[in-house]
Amino acid sequence: MVPRFALAFSHQVSYQALRRRMPALLEARRLRKTYGGRVLLDGVDLRLAGETVTTLGGPSGTGKTTLLRILGLLSDPDEGQLLLDGVNLHSVIPHAARRRIALVAQAPVMFPGTVLDNVRTGPRLAGEELPEATARALVVRAGLPPELLRQDAQSLSGGEKLRVAVARSLALRPEAWLLDEPTAALDAERADLIVRLLRELAAEGAAILVVTHDARALEQLEGPHFQLSSGRLVEGRPLSGDAS
Amino acid sequence: MSYVSVSLPQLLLSLGLMAMAIAISSHNRLGLERDLAIGTVRAAVQLFAVGLLLTFVFQNEHPTTVFGVTAVMVVVGGWTAARRIAHGPGTAVLFRHATLAVLVAGVVVLVPVFAFVIRPPRWYEARLVIPISGMILSNAMNGVALVFERVFASINEDAAGVEQLLSLGATPKQAVERHVRAAMNAALRPTINALLTVGLVALPGMMTGQIVSGTAPDQAVRYQLVIMYQLVAVAAVAGALAARFARALSFDEREQLRTFPDPRVR
C-alpha cells in the first residue's frame, strides 16, 4: 500500500507539472474584500488551471461564497485583479465575460417556465435558440431524466434544481466553472454523477472550482485543495474525517 | 349659461356633511373623529390658500408667475414620487431622477396639446395652463412613484434570480426586464382603468366642474377627452423614464446588482 504522504507528494508533482504545461485560465491576484468591518479575503491568490478541479473548504462564514461571487464577477474585490486567459477582466464587458464563467449557486433560482425554458435561457440572452435535442442532451448529461424537460422548473426538488442549473450553464459551454456545494442536496448516487461530470468537464479543458465539505466528493475530485481561513488560502487536502 | 355662486354662509352649511360623518364615526366607535376634524379644517385652509394664490396669479398673469407655479408643481411632484421608496438608493438620488421624469413627461405631453389642440389665446393663459398642468403633472408623479416602488421592491425580492441571469450573460437590461415590464404595467393600469370606465362609473372632476360652471356639456366632454388622453400619455412617458432610471440605478458600472437596504428598517 502506498503511504498517504507519498500519494500527496505524487499529486503535488503532477499538479506542478500541469501548471507548467498549461497557462491558468482563471487567475485571482491579491484579492482583498472586507464586509461590515470584517476582512473576508486578505490578499488571496488563486490560479484555476484548465483541466483541473480545484476544491475549496473551510468553516462557514469565512468568505468562500464571497470568493465565488468575485470570481463569477457578481461582486468586486476592494483590491486585487482577476484574469481570464491572461486578460484583466476589469477591461472586458462584464456580461460577455460572465458567459465564459459558470457560477452554480448552492440553491439555484429557477426562472419561470419549464426546464427547457431554463436550459435555453443563456443562449436566448445572446440571441440564439438552443435546439430541443441539444437541451435534452444537456439535461441528461446533468443527470436528469429527459422527460423532465417539459416540467415546470419551479416545482422541482432542490437536487433537481441544482442539476437544471448545471444543464443551464452547460448550454453556454463555459471555460471556467464555479460551484457552491454542488453535492450537498444530492444522494450519493446523484452526487457521484455530478462529480463524474465535473471530471469530464475538466478533461475537456475547463477550469473548475468547487466549494465543498462533502468528504466523498473531495476524495473523488483529485485536484488541488485549499482551505479559506482568516481571509487566506491554505493549500492542502484535509485528513479524512476533517472534511465534513 | 353662468355659474351659480356659493356664499360663505352657504359654504358653512356644508360643514353639516362633515358633522354627519363625524357623528357616524363616533356612533360606530371608528376612532376617526379627530382625523375627520383635522381634515375638514386642513382641506379648507389648503384650498383657500390655493384659491388666493390662483387669484393672485390670474390677476398678475405673466409668464414668470404662471411658469413659476408650474415649476413648483414639478419639484413637489418629483419630491413626493421619490419619498418612501424602500430598497432604493435614497430620496436625495431618486428626487433628481423623479423630478427629471416628471418634467420631461410633462413637457412632452403638455406643450403639443397647448400648441396644437387647446390653443389658448395667450400661451401663458393661467386659467388653462395651471389646472391642466396640475392634473397632468400629478399623474406623472403617480406613475413615477409606482414604477420606483415596484422596480426596486421586486428587484430586491428577486435579487438571486437577477444575479443568476447576470451569471448567464444577461445585460442589466435583460436581467431586470421582467420586473421593469411589470412595474410599467402597474403604473399604467389605473389610468387605463379610468379611461375604460369614464362616464360609466363617475363623471370626471374637470368635466363636472366645467358643466357646473356653465360650460356646454359637449365642450366639457371634448376637454375631458383631451385630458384623459394626456393622462395616459404622461403616465406612459413618466413610467418609461422612471423605469429606465430605476434600472440604471440598480446596477453599477461593472454591471453588478446594487442592493439597497430598506431605510425604514434599522
Describe this structure in a few short sentences:
The complex is a heterodimer of chains A (244) and B (266). Helix content of chain A is 36%, strand content 25%.
Largest interface: A-B, 27 and 19 residues
How many whole angstroms does the radius of gyration of chain B measure? 22 Å
Number of helices of chain B: 11
Give the integer mean of the pLDDT values of chain B.
93
pLDDT < 50 stretches of chain A: 1-24
Tell me the distance between the termini of chain B.
60 Å
Give me the count of strands of chain B: 0
Shape of chain B: globular
- Per DSSP E runs of 2 or more residues, the count of β-strands of chain A stands at 10
Give the helix/strand class of chain A: alpha/beta
Structural class of chain B: mainly alpha
Mean pLDDT of chain A: 87
Strand content of chain A: 25-35%
* Helix-residue proportion of chain B: over 70%
Shape of chain A: globular
Secondary-structure element series of chain B: HHHHHHHHHHH
Helix content of chain A: 25-40%
What portion of residues of chain B belong to β-strands?
under 5%
| Oligomeric organization of the protein chains | heterodimer
